[in-house]
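Exercise 7.
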Amino acid sequence: MKKGFYGFFEPPPPDVVRFTVGEPDFDTPRPIVDAAIKALDAGDTHYVGSDGRPNLREAVATKLMEENGIPADPKNVVITLGGKEPLQDAMLAVLDPGDELILHSPSWPTYDPQVIIAHGKPVNVRVKPEDYHIDVEATKEAISPKTKMMMINSPNNPTGAVYTREELKAMADLAVDHDFIIISDEIYEKMVYGGREHISIGSFPEVQDRVITTNGYSKAFAMTGWRLGYVHASSEIMDQVRLTHLHNLTCAVSFEMDAGVVALTQCEQYVNDMVAEYDRRRHLLKDGLNSIEGFRAPEPEGAFYAFVNIKGTGFDPLTLYRRLLEEAKVMLIPGTLFEYGEEYVRFSYATSYEQIGEGIDRIRRWLDANRPE
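Solution. The predicted structure, written as tokens, is:
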């Protein structure tokens, strides 16, 4: 299993421009913080029901219905410790030893190990390299009698792709035809740009009984350290998922529950302002990288990542990463940490506009002085 990714969470050396971790550089909106403080002051520090408090589950169900078009029932919502936990819960609940889970790759490096922990087999299907969208025919060819699940992550980490309704419909049809379950990781749903639309595959009627929708508060509400998330699926699936959650975690954090309600019901403008700033940075990063000889950066459509082909520089990703860090004081993530990432590096633009500009200048100057002959 891959371990190298987690070294990038460590603080960088001084004076380094950091394009690595996908963590918002904004503070959690004040109304959310105030709600948690109020709960703590009231002594809300005890166990809650394993599924989470009814008021938060109802708020999540309302959000899923109104924003995502998913006919959600609060009884089928479980509040989790962040957005990573429900992914693992779902895999442990559904996969039997040897079952296969299809991933559209490059994908988040946590998915593969989670499948393996659940005694399943990850099957990585390469996305189309020109735009990072789903290769439908390659996906069809990857399906086998052992296919039990498929992961959908849109907007996508690391590519920034936002899958279209047509792509998602094709995946929904495959799920019905081949009788497998879809996990839809929608952690970046708020971060879509250029008039694009985030579509929840769980809103398609034909697969509403076979989609597990997971999400969290980390990205949209700048709450990475809070570890608050949720999962929703049909009653039949949730009966198994909630058992995994119960026996692994007991319950999510009690004094965060009311804060979670506030985030979903009172913080839309905070989210819109953050997304507008990410969009500004997105343009700066894309244009800056494409102005550097040897870099090819397709337009990031969502999330806050750019997945950049560096073949034209003459460097492999790991060498470029090491030398930029040591000699130019710029830190990025080598594509070798992702499946099919041998010619790529990932940039996160969850850093300030000024730092992005400085980082691009440093990369340009360094490459001008160090290109291979």
